[in-house]
Design a protein that fits this description.
The chain has 362 residues and is an alpha+beta fold. The protein has six helices and 20 strands.
């Protein structure tokens, strides 16, 4: 049989989660027909059929995590599939295992039926930690239920899709980045009422990157070099119920106010509709988190490699200031700048922050 393996759908991708199957065993498909929707790198992507053929077997179930290069679909024997898309071929007529897709291997030393294993997966119970009460130490459903009862009564939710990707990225960032932060306020009392805060901050970031390009950089520690970018491709954090998305607003320093606002509206709408192209979730050279629209003044933000900096804009508040030795009340925009101290010096970060403030106060 010919096999369609999960192709590489993004930079550094290791696996994808099956969201939904568009086909079933026995279906005849045509070239480019969507076979399965997978979620990875914070996007849902359809994997198309590389050629016409008949579905002989689906190699994974909805909710399964599939590694890049692992089998997705088997096509009926004798039907040739385009090897440019298919990663590999299996010449034997049947799989060696009769287990259902997603069932853990039985050769782990744990004796448990598929139903018991499924129950353990549902409740996130590691069978290796249980002592079976069945014949020859087999683990029974009652053993799993006792383990569930012994844990907290709070419901558990498996990390999937966006939240799993976020957890993996934050773990990587914590392990690799040497973080440092600066906090300051911009006096925006002169801004007209109902000013576009996000747009003004985006423009200030572009200006600051011109003044201090060290923060618009990717760091490659493996080869001990850094890549200074000519354009500012800004990641814009967008909060959703499914987790955090960071689409990319390209070349912000060369765009007009109208183009930037249209771009911000478009990427937000694409994220909410889950229709943003995967390539638009990659390539950020620096990131903005406008968390002040929700709440909070300052934050210790997380820098995601290979980027070296992220800017945060907090909630605008009024504060008493001394102007010409007299107390006045002015609106203040709190700013946070977190940076990777392996690539950025404190002075470079301070110059970047000062340039942002000058632009915002201009």
């Amino acid at each position: 049989m010919s096999v369609l393996n999960l192709p590489d759908l993004g930079e550094g991708l290791q696996h994808a989660e099956i969201v939904s199957w568009h086909v079933a065993v026995g279906d005849h498909v045509v070239t480019s027909q969507p076979l399965v929707a997978v979620e990875t790198d914070k996007a849902v992507v359809d994997v198309p059929a590389p050629a016409a053929g008949t579905i002989a077997r689906l190699c994974a179930e909805v909710g399964d995590s599939v590694d890049v290069g692992a089998p997705l679909v088997e096509f009926a024997e004798g039907e040739r599939i385009d090897t440019g898309t298919v990663v590999g071929e299996i010449k034997t007529a049947a799989p060696t295992s009769t287990s259902k897709p997603g069932t853990p291997p039985t050769g782990t030393g744990v004796q448990a039926t598929p139903a018991v294993r499924a129950l353990a997966r549902q409740h996130m119970i590691d069978l290796e930690t249980l002592r079976g009460s069945g014949p020859d130490g087999a683990i029974l459903s009652s053993d799993v239920e006792q383990a569930v009862a012994a844990t907290s009564g709070a419901p558990r939710e498996r990390l999937r899709g966006v939240r799993r990707a976020m957890a993996e990225r934050m773990t990587l960032a914590h392990a690799q980045v040497v973080p440092a932060s600066l906090h300051a306020d911009a006096d925006i009392e002169h801004w007209p009422e109902h000013s576009d805060v996000t747009l003004r901050v985006v423009q200030a970031i572009a200006t600051a990157c011109e003044v201090e390009p060290a923060l618009n950089t990717w760091l490659d520690m493996e080869n001990m070099n850094r890549q200074l970018h000519q354009s500012v491709d800004l990641g814009v954090a967008v909060d959703t119920a499914d987790g955090l998305f960071v689409p990319t607003l390209r070349d912000v320093g060369a765009r007009s106010d109208e183009s930037l606002r249209e771009g911000l509206d478009q990427i937000k709408q694409d994220v909410l509709n889950r229709s943003i192209p995967p390539q638009e979730l990659r390539g950020q050279t620096i990131t903005l988190s406008n968390f002040g629209s929700i709440g909070g003044r300052y934050a210790e933000l997380v820098v995601v490699p290979p980027q070296v900096a992220i800017v945060g804009a907090g909630r605008i508040l009024s504060a008493v200031l001394a102007v010409d030795n007299k107390p006045v009340i002015h609106r203040q925009l709190p700013l946070s700048l977190s940076f990777d101290h392996r690539a950025v010096t404190g002075a470079e970060a301070a110059r970047f922050m000062a340039a942002m403030i000058r632009e915002l106060e201009n």
